[in-house]
Amino acid sequence: MLTLEGLQITQDDFRLSADWKVATGTRVAIIGPSGGGKSTLLAAICGFTPATGRVLWQGAALDGMAPGKRPIAMLFQDQNLFPHLTAAQNVGLALSQKRLTTDQQRRVAQALARVGLAGFEDRKPAQLSGGQQSRVALARLLLQDRPLWLLDEPFAALGPGLRSEMLALVHQIALEVGATVLMVTHDPEDARKFAQLIVVVDQGVAQAPRDVDEVFENPDQALQDYLGR
Amino acid sequence: MADRLRGLIPLIAAALVGAAVLLPLAAVIWRAGGLSPLDGRSWDAVWFTLWQAALSAALSVGLAVPVARALARRRFRGRAALVALLGAPFILPVIVAILGLLAVFGQKGWLSDGLALFGLPAVKIYGLHGVLLAHVFFNLPLATRLLLQGWRDIPAERFRLAATLGFRPWTMFRLIEWPMLRRIAPGAAMVIFVICLSSFAVALTLGGGPKATTVELAIYQAFRFDFDIGKAAQLAVVQLVLAGAAALVAMRLTLPEAGFGGLDRIVSRWDGSRLLDGFWIALVALFLLLPLAAIGLRGAGALVSLPASVWQAALYSVCVSLGAVLVTLTLALPLALSRRKWVELVGLLGIASSPLVLGTGLYLMINPFIAPWDVALPVTAAVNAVMALPFVLRILRPAAAQIEAEHGRLADSLDLHGLARLRWLVLPRLRRPLGFAAGLTGALAMGDLGVITLFADPDTATLPLQMYRLMGAYRMDQAAGAALLLLILSFGLFWIFDRGGRARADT
Questions:
Q1: A221 interfacial to chain B (CB closer than 8 Å)
Q2: ipTM rounded to 2 decimals
Q3: Fewer CB within 10 Å, N- or C-terminus of chain A?
Q4: pTM for the predicted model, two decimal places
Q5: A84 touches chain B (CB under 8 A)
Q6: 3-state secondary structure of B329
Q7: Tens digit of pLDDT for each residue in B156-204?
Q8: Is there a contact between A68 and B410 if contact means CB atoms under 8 Å apart?
Q9: How far apart are CA B136 and CA B196, in angstroms?
Q10: Helices (H) and strands (E) in chain A, counts
């Protein structure tokens, strides 16, 4: 279970608070107007942005831990791959920061195959399409073996078709490994397809997660404003 | 624990640089016994130093204005090559340029030969005007690059607007170009003034005599001719005060940045005289190319029959150069990667101190224990490493900061730290600037004629010193051959390192 206990983020005159829980294995979409603090919320959970209050995973506090030490894997809006490393090297960093063993190389190849990129090991990001780059990042996520995934609109640059394809893939893989996923999106349709719960971030508050169908059937004022209804 | 160790490494590097600069300075000040009154000759040196530096700065910037403007608004074949050529004097060994300038402007040079055809007397190059000629040769390209950057930063829309309003050239200058020049030119002049304050090799070869001696040269003369270490130390304190004061003034001005590329954008302009712009471009191209051509022409024949001493000196120089590269990069890498602000001060230490002052201090420190000439080569490498450090930090720090900005979060989220971060992220992405910085350091150390003059005995010499000795013995053909060899080695070293940084750094 992910617990945000009185989490408060303050940056100049921007404030955001969150105080809620999410059960393990749940997929949560975070929506709200731009500039509302969706990305900031993820950055605070991951430890990139300082915040007061507590973040707990399975009851253990994460505060003060470096981002890389938290049980969290993160995908950013961009720069998810090192451009100077091959697909296999990028994915391999999930397993080891030394030279990979044969067994590890096999696992990297398997992960790439799982996201539909068998045989792409030696390509560098510049030689891959946007969709393929996202798949490499996803393959790394798969091997990172972290129970909590934070996705900050990683597929925003893809076209609608490719995007829903990627979301379906994330959905499948998250189910397979039982990952808890928090995903920022600005597309209500993506949220509805992907998530079980919705967190609306608006007016300095990240509201407690609610069931996705319920939210869209009875949108409150904040969501209505955002959806433009 | 490991984290604390990592935090210590830049501190250790900074302490080493600080010790390498401050201990010799302390030795100099201690030996000089503070500031004692100067004799008349020393005052002459002070005035000459200030005067020639001011004139060099004014001439370089003044001439750079029409040249940079012509380059900013004209598109022509070879423009890119000419802009690249403007970067060349930075890594051109001073002594090589001087031999080239002598071949063109000297008493027996091409210009004098030409004048003789009309029955005119030969040019006299030695003295103030010779010093100025060499300083303009080195700094006109620098000033041009700085001003060209200024022109490039003027938004193209303004020139378009000016064209639609039918501005006359004078109006254009007054309203658009003058404000930029007023902002950039003083800083450019200050940079050149500071560079010329520490002029040694130029004054050594083209100046000299009571009327054309810089303080740096006076230090050398006190050392070598008067054997008066106390006076050398006293002059070193003077030089320290001059350079320190100038560096303080320079810090208050916003100094322009030429960067090391990206001067290729040409703004569309509809004004100015093609002929006049062509004249300036041709003039600066000839001014830079003729001395180099003279070295090539004269040196090529002598290159095959160089005496063994030259080859020996070349080998020493390569060792000094590679040593300087190794030391500089070892010190610069942790400093460049540290995000602390004081690192910039470490770079400034190198700028405020001059080679001859450091050399004097090191001599004072070493002399009681071992014979200074035994360590001439390591000392030369070390001093060059310190002198190159400011440039290297200027290249590496922004690059390192950019790597962090672009990829730092991903590296953090993957828990890449310490050596693993260095291996997977920093070194691969820093390759290009590292190669460039190594090339620059290597070329500068290769061509340096400074501290080695204090330390060398008659049997050891770096290539620039050997070349200077050949010139002093009037063996001009051999000197030209040595110059060509030095030119090839300097540019070759730069090319190899720079190339190494680019290879396979594809993305």
A1: no
A2: 0.88
A3: C
A4: 0.85
A5: yes
A6: helix
A7: 788 888 888 878 878 888 888 898 899 889 989 998 998 899 889 999 9
A8: no
A9: 10
A10: 8, 11
